Amino acid sequence: MKTDIILSGVGGQGILSIAAVIGEAALKEGLYMKQSEVHGMSQRGGDVQSNLRLSDRPVASDLIPLGQASLIISLEPMESLRYLPYLREDGWLVTNTQPFVNIPNYPEMEKIMDELLRLPRRVLLNVEAVAREAGSPRTANIVMLGASAPFLGIEYGKIVEGVRSIFGRKGEDVVELNLKALKAGYDAAQIRQL
After folding, report:
1. In a structure prediction context, what are the per-residue pLDDT tens digits for the chain, which is 194 residues long?
2. What are the CB-based long-range contacts (under 8 Å, 24+) for 60-69?
3. What is the pTM of this model?
4. Dihedral of the CA atoms 118, 121, 123, 124 (nearest 10)?
5. How do strand 47-55 and strand 32-38 relate by DSSP bridges?
6. What is the rounded CA–CA span in Å between residue 9 and residue 49?
7. To which H or E segment does residue 129 belong?
8. Smallest Cα–Cα separation from 140: which of 23, 35, 12?
9. No. of helices (H) and no. of strands (E), the chain
10. How far from chain centre, in Å, is Cα 88?
11. Which residues contact 170 (CB under 8 A, 6 or more apart)?
């Protein structure tokens, strides 16, 4: 078993929290893991990207080569396009459909969506809307994690344990809110999966 994951988005969207939960779940699953992160100008809404490599065998490098990612998880649609060259032919893209417009020359959403719709294996989801329905727009990143869960190669129960572990220090209400968001994302992705 080997799953190479690229997480992408912009600063403040919770990319690193997703990485932490996946990492915790992978360890609970007994997998080996390597991770690298690029923060850039994340404090100012810049690009944030993380490589996660999960395997049932030791992992030598933390960087994913071009054309080798099993999964791209993106909280920002333009950022998902940036990393498409890393996606395997049989890989999946799970991305938010709502842009975080942080540059003056942000491309037209219609053009971005045209590119994304060309992919044969994709889940496109308005995670902010699902998060609001689940109880809090602040849980959009965990909605995205739930939508990605079927492609991680990790038992769903281990992801639940990862959420409990990462958010546990914030109290049971926060844990339950995030678990509700995780399930909402998981359910929404099942409907939108191609």
Report:
1. 899 999 998 877 888 899 999 999 999 999 999 998 775 555 556 778 899 999 999 998 889 999 999 999 999 999 999 999 999 999 999 999 999 887 888 899 999 999 999 999 999 999 999 999 999 999 999 999 999 999 999 999 999 999 999 999 999 999 999 999 999 999 998 876 54
2. 60/34, 61/34, 62/34, 62/35, 62/36, 63/36, 64/4, 64/5, 64/6, 68/4, 69/4, 69/5, 69/6
3. 0.92
4. -10
5. antiparallel
6. 7
7. helix 127-134
8. 12
9. 7, 6
10. 16
11. none
Q: Which stretches does DSSP call E strand in 56-175?
A: 69-74, 87-96, 122-125
- Chain position carrying tokens 């990462």: 166
Give the chain's length. Answer: 194
pLDDT at position 168, please? 93
Q: Tell me, what DSSP letter sits at residue 150?
A: G
The two tokens of residue 82 are 């940036």
- Which amino acid appears at position 164 of this protein? R
